[in-house]
Amino acid sequence: MVVPDDIRKCVAFIGLRKADGTFRFAGSLFFLGKTTEGGVLAGSMYAVTARHVIDNIRKIGVTESFLRVNLKDGQAQWVKAPLDAWFVHPTDFSIDVAILPMGLPEPLDHLFLPYSLCATERHMKDNEVGVGEEVFVTGLFKHHHGSRRNIPIVRVGNLACMTEEKVATNHFGEMDAFLIEARSIGGLSGSPVFLSLGSSRVIKGTVRLGPSNPPFLLLGLVHGHYDVGTTEIDRVADDGTDAAQNDQVNTGIAIVVPFNKIDAVVSAFEASRAVSGQAANLS
Questions:
Q1: Tens digit of pLDDT for each residue in 207-262?
Q2: For residues 136 and 154, is the Cβ–Cβ distance under 8 A?
Q3: Which CATH number fits domain 5-272: 3.40.1190.20, 2.40.10.10, 3.30.230.80, 3.30.70.2210?
């Protein structure tokens, strides 16, 4: 499986600015947009990350998040977005999703992931998606994030468990989630997780060619991982190290918030317009 560069172009990194003016990474994000035949629908474009990434930045006492984005000149730039501009689900606190309404200015070397590439319940049913499917994660590896520009890594695994039963987590209670066999670490919080539909599939007992468009679907976003005996959200600790303690062992199973939960947050935002409804002013 080769991951197209356009997939990685939907990914950026998120962090904060410390009192000394330096920046610290906090996690990953991706750009999502509703589309029409003419392109991305104005007013329906979002940066998406895990809710706990925003919560952890807020706990430090700052009022702004910063997005590290790639520019078309080959460099990266930190742009600020007020924490209050991020929207979370107003009633379902088990949804680890936060969205920021925004556009992509011309200098940015990024793309929006269209809704047509998202794993809706219809997509999952029509393609008879099940345990064992190949998946991949793309996002921040803090040890090699890129000095001049963002370099999202790709980790490949498989779908280990469907959303048959709620998953118990330490920070969000019982939540609807997929489990994937792909080791997740601090920094991958909020990373998009993609499902590979493959070159061929068995549907209704018949072998069929896999879809050429789209070959990948957005399965959801990374919440965290299982350590031995517990679960841990994927985040970068205050000192810049992985949040997990040295005596904890990552089991290699990651927890994924399904796309339909991302869509629930987008729908709640568009219904309420709790955050002005205008694109965020990035600077």
A1: 555 555 558 999 999 998 787 666 766 666 554 444 444 456 667 899 999 999 99
A2: yes
A3: 2.40.10.10
Looking at per-residue confidence, does 192 or 214 come out higher?
192
State the Cα–Cα distance between residues 124 and 233, nearest whole angstrom. Answer: 26
The model's pTM is 0.86
Whole-number Å distance between alpha carbons of 10 and 185: 20
Say if CB 218 and CB 263 are below 8 A apart.
no
**Please, what is the end-to-end C-alpha distance for the chain in angstroms?**
37
The 10 Å CB-count burial string (b at 16+, else e) for 210-245 is ebeebbbbbbbbbbbbbbeeebbbbbbeeeeebbbe
What is the tens place of the pLDDT at every residue in 56-89? 999 999 999 999 999 999 999 999 999 999 999 9
Contact 174, 94 (CB under 8 A): yes
Residue 283 C-alpha from the chain's centroid: 22
Domain boundaries, the chain: 5-272
**By the 8 A CB rule, do 251 and 226 touch?**
yes
For residue 239, what pLDDT is reported?
46
Structure tokens at 59: 């706990």
